[in-house]
Amino acid sequence: xxxxxxxxxxxxxxxxxxxxxxxxxPIGAEDNILKEMQGxxxxxxxxxxxxDATTKGFPYKQLDITNVxxxxxxxxxxxxxxxxxxxxxxxxxxxxxxxxxxxxxxWVVDNAKAPTIITLKNGxxxxxxxxxxxxxxxxxxxxxRKIKKANGKIVVSYIYxxxxx
Amino acid sequence: xxxxxxxxIFTFSVxxxxxxxxxSPATFTAEDEVTITLDVTGTPMAGQDDxxxxxxxxxxxxxxxxALTNGQWGNSSDAARMTKIATNxxxxxxxxxxxxxxxxxxxxxxxxxxKSKDGSKQTQDFKPFKFDPLVxxxxxxxxxxxxxxxxxxxxxxxxxxxxxxxxxxxxFDVKVTLTxxxxxxxxVGTKTGLVAIKESTTVYSxxxxxxxxxxxxxxxxxxxxxxxxxxxxxxxxxxNIPTSAPVNEVVYTVFN
Lengths: 165, 256
Description:
The structure holds 2 protein chains of 2 kinds. Chain A has one domain: Beta Barrel (Lipocalin). An 8-stranded antiparallel barrel of chain A has the order 1-3-4-5-6-7-8-9. In chain A, 17% of the residues lie in helices and 42% in strands. Chain A starts with a helix and ends with a strand. Chain A is of the alpha+beta class. Chain B has 2 domains: 16-130, Immunoglobulin-like; 141-251, Immunoglobulin-like, CATH 2.60.40. In chain B, strands 12, 13, 16, 17 and 18 form a 5-stranded antiparallel β-sheet that branches. In chain B, strands 1-2-7-6 form a 4-stranded antiparallel β-sheet. A 4-stranded antiparallel β-sheet of chain B has the order 10-11-15-14. The interface between A and B is medium-sized, with 23 and 26 residues.
């Protein structure tokens, strides 16, 4: 009878021991999004979105404006240090309409592992751009979105598609 | 007589020059809650502690109603009383559909004035203020995007199948005239004869960014622009006669 008690006690201890959380290693190598973003990217498509029309379900929600002006002239070079941390950027606009109020400076992200906002900085001036899906980065595509708000509501946005040079 | 007329105009302009109206949010539909801020400085209501709103819908477009909160002209309802936030400054919160008892589709614009409870004093009318549509209505002219500022790409459209005037329905060789205005309402620049793109048999468009169309002097802020589609029609002998569609005005939105 005593043996049974010990066996039950041992089973309980083993069960509790077995409930420890296990750490699973990454499946494949961890992506370094910031490193993948670095390099020179050429602007290949610009889409203007009427966010108000989208919200209300109106027709005419977006417009491809790539060929209205020489948007494809523009390229952006994002530099980083050896560890992959963002450093400087240079926009070469050519004859394209501007996508930022300044063409050189530094860039930072809101989250190094999963960035969603890229901030371009030059002195006191800043320009926030939202990063699109990471899925295209491996195939050389990268999307930035510029939004314009009125009273906290997004009214107009621009989706810039870049292709790695 | 001339002096008398001028002095009357001057008196009225001084009396009404300082009244200011702002809305929060700046743009709204008939289903949004809106706060009106009214500054009655320089109006007959200046210095009053109590200001009541007298509101009305669809001014000049038919189907208008008085606000359900108005009460009688000689005895405004307490629900129409504004909240005093500072000397001569008052606010009032409302939702269009609730205030007028009309559907979003029925409500196009509204106006109002500030008054004393007994109606012995009042401001001038402030009107018309448009509700943003909740339902899309096709029209012969449209702008994309619906709200934009002077740095945005603007595309103006002419839907010829929606035209009501015969000459406009028959217009060909369609071009666009753009005129840009500053904050003071003065013309900053005009560009005529811009060739419209024929998107389909009945739709023409023209896309532009203002500083690519005109030279904007440093320090000048554009406040609005007008666009007009022009073209030709055939006369009885087959000759071309110039014709033009009505002028449309677009006021730039202030993004923040």
